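ARCHIVE CARD
CATEGORY: sequence design from structure
SOURCE FIELD: tokenized fold
FIELD CONTENT:
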């Protein structure tokens, strides 16, 4: 991972670290590595989403472990220096700065940890479509609803999950959401 970190410019690496800190302190639901990867690639750096996601997971583990052990900035850098001698100098500088400025914002409450292990719902989009025909059937005229859920998994990676439903399935889905809303109103 150190060779991949070396590819990432310091400003993008700092942004990634800050997003991870914000995620761990529950200020944002997750880290949008796909969007960040696209911006890095647009700047001319060759890195793929899988490598960036691995780096984000490593940094998330690093920051959460440092918070759990209540490490000071110097203790974190000393530990990193002895454990990971291959980490680029600019990465150590960014980690030092971000941890020094924002590391204390990470709190390890039991409730927050339990919520984070499940993942978090971020957004939902839907669209209505009609399948007119296919290779095997000339006239379908079959309506369907496509739902795209944006979720942040426990590590903070934001992903989209899409699925299609028939109209009766969507009506059942909608009914269940109405039931949830009515139950939440009573709480």
């Amino acid at each position: 991972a150190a060779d991949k970190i070396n590819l990432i410019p310091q400003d993008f690496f700092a942004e990634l670290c800050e997003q991870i800190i914000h995620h761990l302190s529950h200020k944002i639901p997750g880290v949008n590595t796909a969007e960040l990867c696209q911006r890095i690639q647009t700047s001319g750096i060759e890195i793929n989403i899988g490598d960036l996601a691995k780096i984000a997971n490593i940094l998330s583990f690093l920051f959460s472990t440092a918070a759990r052990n209540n490490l000071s900035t110097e203790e974190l850098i000393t530990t990193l220096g002895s454990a990971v001698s291959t980490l680029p100098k600019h990465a150590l500088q960014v980690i030092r700065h971000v941890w020094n400025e924002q590391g204390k914002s990470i709190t390890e409450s039991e409730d927050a940890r339990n919520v984070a292990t499940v993942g978090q719902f971020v957004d939902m989009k839907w669209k209505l479509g009609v399948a007119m025909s296919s290779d095997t059937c000339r006239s379908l005229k079959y309506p369907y609803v496509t739902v795209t859920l944006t979720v942040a998994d426990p590590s903070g990676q934001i992903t989209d999950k899409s699925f299609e439903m028939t109209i009766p399935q969507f009506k059942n889905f909608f009914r269940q959401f109405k039931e949830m809303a009515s139950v939440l109103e009573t709480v």
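CARD ANNOTATION: The chain is about 55% helix and 15% strand. Residues 119 and 153 are 4 Å apart (CA to CA).
SHELF: design records, drawer C
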